[in-house]
Amino acid sequence: MFKFNCFQMTFARLIFITSLFCASAVFASGNDSGRELVLGSVAMDIPVEMVKRLTPLTKYLSKQISIPVTFRASPNLGSAVEDLGTNNTQIAYLPPAAYLEAHEKYAATPLVSPLSKGKGSFTLMIVVSKNSAIQSVNDLRGKKFAFGDKKAILQPAVVESAGIKLEEFASYDYLNHYDNIAKAVINGDFDAGIVKDVIAEKFSSQGLRVIYTSVPLPSYVFAVNKNLPAITVNKLKKAMLALKGNNATHKEILSALENGYDGFEAASDKDFDGIRKLLAQSKK
C-alpha cells in the first residue's frame, strides 16, 4: 500500500508539472483568452506622454473584459507593427499606412476606429509658421520640410499628391512626432511640415498656419494580432464601441487618447482601399 501511494503521489506530481508546462505553453502562444493583453501604439509623442494617453483606456478595457490590459510604448512606427505581428503586443493603435503594413505582413485585422465629431476620418495638413511668406504648396520648392516617422509612408504620398516631389525640397528630415514637427516649424527650424488635423488645431494659437489639407483619410485604427481568440476580440470590440463622448467618464478616456475623440466605430479592411490607391499612385 505504501509503495502504491508513493507511485500515486509521484504520478500526481508529474501530472501537475505537465499541466503547468502546458499552461505556460498556451500562455506563450497567445491562444489563451485569459492571459494578460498588451496594447501597443505608434510613437505619436514621447513615451511618457503616450503612457498618459493610453493608460485610461487600458484600465477601462481591463475592467470591461476581465482580462488585464497593459500598455507598451513603441519607439517608432516600424517597431509598433513588428510588435503586433510577432505577438509582443496583441492590440495596437496604428495610423492607416502602418495598419496596411501589419495586415500585409502579419495578417493583422482591424478592430475599431476612433470617431472625431462623429466622423471616422481625419486629414493631414501641410503647415507653415504664421509669419511665413509661404502661401501655397508651390512656394515650398527649395524649402526645408519636416516629416514624422520615416515609415509613415502616407505623409510623403499626401505631399506628392499636393503637387510637389520630395526631390524639389532643399532638404527634408524626420522628427518622429507630430508635436515635434509643429514646434520645429513655429521655431523656424523648418519652413514647413505635415501634421494631423488635431495637431494643426492645437498649435494654431501658437503660430501655426495651414496651407494645404488632404482629402479625408480613414482614421487611425486599433488592430489585433491574427491569433487573438475570437471571444477576446469580440469582448474588446464591444467594450470599445460602448465608449461614448456624451458620458462624462467615457469622455475622459477618449479625450486622454486624443482631444476631440467622441467614440469608436467598427473597422473593416475595406475602409483602407482609398489609402491603398493613394499609396499606389505615389509610387508611379
Structural class, judged by helices and strands? Answer: alpha/beta
User: What percent of residues adopt helix (DSSP H or I)?
Assistant: 40-55%
Strand/helix succession: HEHEHEHEEEEHEHEHEEEHHEH
Number of helices: 10
* Number of spatially distinct domains: 3
Identify the CATH homologous superfamily of the largest domain.
Answer: Periplasmic binding protein-like II
- Identify low-pLDDT runs: 1-33
Number of strands: 13
* β-sheet strand percentage: 15-25%
Strand order of the largest sheet: 2-1-3-12-4-13
Major sheet characteristics: 6 strands, mixed
Shape label:
globular
Rg over CA atoms, rounded to whole Å, is: 23 Å
CATH architecture of the largest domain: 3-Layer(aba) Sandwich
**Average pLDDT rating:** 86
Question: Mind telling me the CATH class of the largest domain?
Answer: Alpha Beta
User: What's the N-to-C terminus distance?
Assistant: 82 Å
Look up the CATH topology of the largest domain: D-Maltodextrin-Binding Protein, domain 2
Overview of the structural elements:
The protein has 284 residues and is an alpha/beta fold. The protein has 3 domains: 1-30; 33-120 and 218-282, D-Maltodextrin-Binding Protein, domain 2, CATH 3.40.190; 126-214, Periplasmic binding protein-like II (D-Maltodextrin-Binding Protein, domain 2, 3-Layer(aba) Sandwich), CATH 3.40.190. It contains 10 helices and 13 strands. It has a 6-stranded mixed β-sheet, sandwiched between helices. Strand 1 (37-41), helix 2 (47-65) and strand 2 (69-73) form a beta-alpha-beta unit. Helix 3 (77-85) packs parallel to helix 4 and helix 5 (154-161) packs across helix 10. The chain is globular, with a radius of gyration of 23 Å. The protein starts with a helix and ends with a helix. Mean pLDDT is 86; it is low at 1-33.
